[in-house]
Amino acid sequence: MDYIVSAPGKAILHGEHAVVHGKVALAVSLNLRTYLRLRATTTGKVCINLPNIDTFFCWDLSELQQLIASSQGQKEEVTRLNHQLVNRLREFVGVTNGNLDTRTMATLAFLYIYLSLFGSGKLPSLTVSVWSELPTGAGLGSSAAYTVCLAAALLCASGDVPSPLKEWDHTARWCQEDLELINSWAFQGEIIIHGNPSGVDNAVGTWGGMLRFLAGKIIPLSRVPLLRILLTNTKIPRSTKVLVARVKDKINKFPSIMTPVLDSVDAISCTCEKVLSEMTCEPITGEHYNILEELIDINQHHLNVMGVGHPALDTLCRVTLARGLHSKLTGAGGGGCGITLLRPETDSCVIQSTVQDLRDCGFDCWETSIGGPGVQQHSPLSVKEEILEILNQF
Known about the structure:
Keywords: ATP-binding, Cholesterol biosynthesis, Cholesterol metabolism, Cytoplasm, Kinase, Lipid biosynthesis, Lipid metabolism, Magnesium, Metal-binding, Nucleotide-binding, Steroid biosynthesis, Steroid metabolism, Sterol biosynthesis, Sterol metabolism, Transferase. The chain is of the alpha+beta class. It is about 45% helix and about 20% strand.
């Protein structure tokens, strides 16, 4: 038993905060991924290695066996979290207050899915290693990419979904029914980590591409163009909860001003969706990119009006515009990350100079793309050598 899987992070293309008020948001997958390797062992232990957050844990199977009395039947009721098992696991890993750090949250999610899937039989000895290209806590769906990988690998190991990878394949994807099951279990992990997630992040990690989110309904769009971007992390910490409350306060204070702003953001999301759809069935033209750039600029101004901008994000927009590129924040705002659209004809020297300019501002910056595939299974040949080396350490 040896499975290597990966899942992408996510960015919000348009619709930040508007989604809270029943408007359309467009979420897209990033081609920055989390990789997980699961291997069977004969150690009588379950081990998880998370080098990104300097975490390595091992548990004897006999310790874990005592925790699973309440997990019977959970596999058939994946839509409901088993709170009794969660509480036992919190006590087991030594959670003494509600402020869970990244290590603890990742551990809880792993143990919960593992015990829920294997609890009705003999617990297998496993070693799980995870490495991510995604920064944590930056609003890029790193926790969801992790839980999607966990769900996919553990469901394969338990036999609940078949391995899609044939011996001649380098990468493979699961069928729709299996993806739905993977997504359901990943969502359970997200609930443990975040408490009340929307489900958007794990859905993007599962299906990839682009998803439309409206009034709690998530609709994967069948085809989207692969767009090159710069992804910039301003490294300014922010609280999503505080930023959401700030927007609500503005709406309550100035409803006649803010309601049209939200309506405009909704229209931006719908127009962007229409343009991206056209780009998959027509020859892509410069006018398509012109419209996308204008929508980015308009949306960024709206987000500043909504009170979720930040001087660091203004700097990002100013630096990239000096090079003829257009940027906006992605996620909650107030710092965090921004995306910059790259046109097909953008010269590589311009890109390299822009990346250096942004790094000189103290930001982290990567060239990547959006609209790539969701969760995948890999053969070792399809994984970058440096990532495979990390995954093979334990």
